[in-house]
Specification:
This protein has about 90 residues and is mainly α. Helix content is about 60%, strand content about 10%. It has a two-stranded antiparallel ribbon with strand order 1-2. The longest helix is centred in the C-terminal third of the chain and has 33 residues, at about 55-85.
Length: about 90
Amino acid sequence: MNKPDYLKEACGHFLSSWDEKKYTTGEQIVEALDECGGDIPEDIEVWQPFELDPPDEIAEMITHLSVTYKTMFELGVKYAAQNKEELK
């Protein structure tokens, strides 16, 4: 199983779409938001509740949520391994 791109998964919570040919990883999306100044790049669409947030703050929110996703994934893997061991 490939390691999930937690940043890209978190992007979907704050962003409705992005240019998938240009941004192939969550890291690229976060960098674009961080470096764009005051305006969201034209090839990134933001969910309405976050439209007025500065791009760098959206990037920060994506990063924080990705840590939560990573933690949840790691706990799920750990729990599954424990269950597998208990079933033996």
